[in-house]
Design goal:
The complex is a heterotrimer of chains A (359), B (215) and C (220). Chain A is of the alpha/beta class. Chain A is built from 16 helices and 17 strands. In chain A, the strands form four sheets. In chain A, strands 6-7-8-3-9-10 form a six-stranded mixed beta sheet, with helices on both faces. Classes of the chains: A alpha/beta (359), B mainly alpha (215), C mainly alpha (220).
């Protein structure tokens, strides 16, 4: 976990960051967002000490960053900026290998790591290892930039508007790509953006800043449902409209009230009135679900088992609705790529969410 | 007598002149390179950037001063001899090198420097691994210019008794000996062209491929 | 001491300054005509262009004294071996490279869509060159001419050695006579002339092209 403790930055009579305290949880994407000049980039750069604060402390897993050598600190954190800053005189392999090189890895290990990372970001190593940045398209450069930041396998990633310079169409696919990556790698990501749609799409938690101070910080869906004041409402603006909401990730809106049982356990459990939603999972296979309270009305538990649709956690609410309507099923079971069941969604649920959040 | 006869008959003296000429240019270029590089690096550091831009302005103007004038001025202080020429050439050669080194270093894109810092490179590593390689094209060009000017100016330096191939040309001019003139000019021209070709080749091998790919 | 020198030789310095300027001036006009025309001619042909510029670059590398001296020998048969003719010829040959190169690069850099728009309006290639390409390439071409002029002032210093006159006289005579003031006076005069030529041409550029955006200083 990264803890920002009353962090302050002062330049003469300007205070870009004013006693900011924030907890950034592990293995999730925390967004820093706010109007121009709110201090989000300054805050980000204080985490890897590119900017030194005037006051307060920043701790990573309990250790203050000021107790560490800044150079070593930066080598252990991945850093991606908007222009990427790929080194034009190094090949893709050379670029990815920079931090490993600084850390003393040998050439073979670096080459293997570069191949691994290129595959991870969907670029064929054979083609791309020896290319130079000038030969790459914008989207390819961005992906190499992310691969470079991941080279030394850092637990923390700092990203400063990394997709800002890309056109909207490619930005969408880069965002989707990043979500897939994150669900596989599960890093602690601090992500600065000024684009509220991007914030809601990518963020697990959103921290809203203004004039150097924290205005509100919460999980994404909580923030959308309960904006703290008119400023936040305004900022969330279009993100709270019904159409926008449909684009957001299923994983953030699932109904998490369920228990998991095997089919055998279901038959043994008998009739229970207060049974919550039951999801049947035998080994790795999800075979069905039983609606809350349904067990009571059926003689044979097997009759209560319903068929469902599987939906990825990264799918949008819109895709979930479409899948459900097409298949005629009542519920979708939302799973992460590694098979973990995150929860369920139904069309009435989604409609309710939209009603609650929309203006 | 034609030029080739002259050369074959006087080869020992001629080769001595060639050696003198190359020696003068060589020493001067090395000195200019060291001074120009160090000054250029110092002057492009973030805190000294205002000084840096001022120096670039000054060197821009300094390039208006003809090389011959520098030799003449040096003569005023150190008199006759190769030492005068070498000092003058060294000073004069600093100008194109310093200009190229400092302007190229100042042109390194800020985002690349930020990415390098952010990844955990020490300032020294940033200079050696990022800034200098990215400026290498320009630095090599400055070096080539310095060498070309030096070879040319060293020819004229014979008027201050510096020796070198200029001697042959001057004697040829005053004694009206076309064979000497042609011999001298051909030799000097060949050296100039050859050194430029060698440096061009060096430039190609030193500068990273990634920098010359058309975007 | 330098002051007394200038006072004493004032008239002579003025005379030689004018000689110097006229040498460089004539050479510049010739080089500009040749250089720009050549640049225009090769602008459409990549291969020929590289050849021409390559040849001019080689010429440029040859030490100035050598070229001056060669011309002395070459022009001797027609009794033009000394004096202004070989001097101006050499200066012209040197000045051609920066001008041709800048012209060629400048014409290549003209935005293709502007050219296409002009062609679409029905202009002939000649009209496109005259009314669209050259005007747009003018800043860079002028920079090349200015560069050549300043270089020429420096190189003309040597012209005195082959009888071409000019301010170089004071430098070489000063060395021969071990007269420091003479050398210093000559150096200052040439440097000031170089700066004046640079400044003067810059003003002329501003006057001719007030709508130019940015400064586009191209030194090489």
């Amino acid at each position: 976990m990264i803890e920002l403790d009353a962090v302050t930055k002062r330049y003469g009579d300007k205070t870009p960051v004013d006693h900011l305290s924030l907890r950034i949880p592990d293995n999730a994407i925390t967004i820093l967002i706010g109007p121009s000049g709110c201090g989000k980039t300054t805050t980000l750069k204080m985490i890897n000490r590119l900017i030194e604060p005037t006051g307060g402390d920043i701790r990573i897993d309990g250790r203050s960053v000021y107790a560490m050598d800044p150079i070593e600190l930066r080598r252990s954190i991945g850093y991606v900026i908007q222009e990427i800053g790929l080194f034009p005189h190094y090949t893709v392999e050379g670029n990815i290998g920079v931090v490993p090189g600084l850390l003393g890895w040998d050439r073979t290990r670096i080459r293997r790591r570069a191949e691994e990372l290129l595959e991870l970001v969907n670029l064929d190593p054979l083609t791309y290892l020896r290319r130079y940045p000038r030969e790459l398209s914008g989207g390819e450069r961005q992906r190499v930039g992310v691969a470079r930041a991941l080279a030394a396998d850092p637990r923390v990633l700092l990203m400063d508007e990394p997709f800002g310079a890309i056109d909207p169409i490619n930005r969408r696919s880069l965002q989707d790509f990043f979500l897939r990556l994150q669900s596989e790698l599960k890093r602690t990501v601090v992500f600065v953006t000024h684009d509220i749609s991007e914030a809601v799409k990518l963020g697990d938690r959103i921290a809203i800043m203004r004039d150097g101070r924290l205005v509100q910080v919460d999980a994404t869906h909580a923030l959308l449902e309960h904006p703290a004041d008119a400023f936040v409402e305004d900022l969330l603006g279009a993100a709270r409209s019904a159409e926008q909401l449909l684009l957001y990730r299923a994983a953030n809106y699932v109904d998490t009230a369920f228990t998991v049982m095997t089919t055998e356990e279901l038959h043994r459990s008998g009739v229970r009135a207060e049974a919550p939603l039951i999801i049947l999972k035998d080994g790795a296979v999800v075979s069905g679900y039983v609606e809350k309270g349904q067990l009571v009305t059926c003689e044979d538990p097997q009759d209560a088992v319903c068929r469902f649709e599987t939906v990825s956690g990264n799918a949008t609410l819109l895709e979930t609705v479409a899948t459900l309507l097409e298949s005629g099923r009542k519920r979708a079971v939302v799973q992460s790529p590694d098979g973990t069941i995150l929860g369920t969604l139904s069309v009435p649920m989604i409609a309710e969410i939209m009603a609650k959040v929309a203006r | 007598m034609n030029a080739f006869q002259y050369l074959s008959r006087n080869w020992p003296e001629v080769s001595a002149k060639i050696a003198q000429h190359l020696g003068m240019v060589g020493v001067a270029v090395v000195a200019s390179l060291i001074v120009g590089l160090v000054l250029g690096i110092v002057v492009s550091r973030p805190r000294l950037q205002k000084v840096g831009r001022a120096i670039i302005g000054v060197t821009g103007i300094a390039q208006s001063i003809p090389s011959v004038a520098v030799i003449a001025l040096m003569f005023v202080y150190t008199g006759i001899g190769p030492r005068t020429a070498v000092i003058a050439l060294s000073i004069y050669g600093v100008v194109p090198i310093l200009f190229n080194v400092s302007s190229a270093l100042l042109l390194v894109p800020a985002d690349i420097l930020e990415a390098a810092r952010g990844m955990g490179m020490t300032p020294f590593q940033v200079l050696i691994q990022i800034e200098l390689p990215l400026a290498s094209q320009s630095i090599m060009a400055g070096l080539r210019t310095a060498v070309t000017i030096d070879v040319s100016t060293a020819t004229v330096a014979s008027v201050v008794g510096a020796g070198g191939l200029g001697d042959i040309i001057f004697v040829g001019l005053s004694a009206v000996r076309p064979d000497m003139i042609i011999a001298g000019t051909l030799l000097v021209a060949s050296i100039a062209i050859l050194s430029d070709v060698v440096l061009a080749f060096l430039q190609k091998s030193v500068v990273s491929r990634g920098l010359s790919i058309p975007s | 001491m330098v002051g007394t020198f200038i006072a004493g030789y004032g008239a002579e310095m003025l005379r030689r300054t004018l000689q110097h300027i006229s040498m460089v001036g004539v050479a510049l006009v010739l080089a500009a005509s040749i250089g720009v025309s050549l640049g225009v001619v090769i602008s459409g042909h990549e291969r020929v262009a590289r050849w021409v510029i390559g040849a001019a670059s080689v010429l440029f590398t040859v030490p100035s004294l050598a070229l001056f001296a060669l011309l002395v020998v070459a022009l001797a048969p027609i009794r033009q071996g000394t004096g202004r003719v070989p001097a101006i010829t050499a200066l012209t040959l040197y000045s051609v490279l920066p001008i041709v190169r800048n012209t060629w690069v400048a014409l290549r850099q003209v935005d293709p869509s502007t050219v296409q728009a002009a062609q679409g309006m029905g202009m002939t290639p000649g009209q496109v060159m005259l009314h669209v390409k050259l005007p747009l390439a003018l800043p860079l071409i002028m920079a090349g001419i200015r560069n050549a002029a300043v270089m020429g002032v420096g190189m003309a210093t040597i012209a005195t050695l082959i009888g071409g006159g000019g301010l170089g006289y004071f430098i070489f005579e000063g060395i021969a006579r071990a007269n420091r003031s003479m050398v210093i006076a000559g150096t200052i005069a040439i440097t000031l002339l170089g700066l004046a030529v640079n400044g003067g041409l810059l003003l002329a550029e501003e006057a001719l092209m007030p709508e130019r955006r940015g400064r586009g200083e191209h030194r090489r």
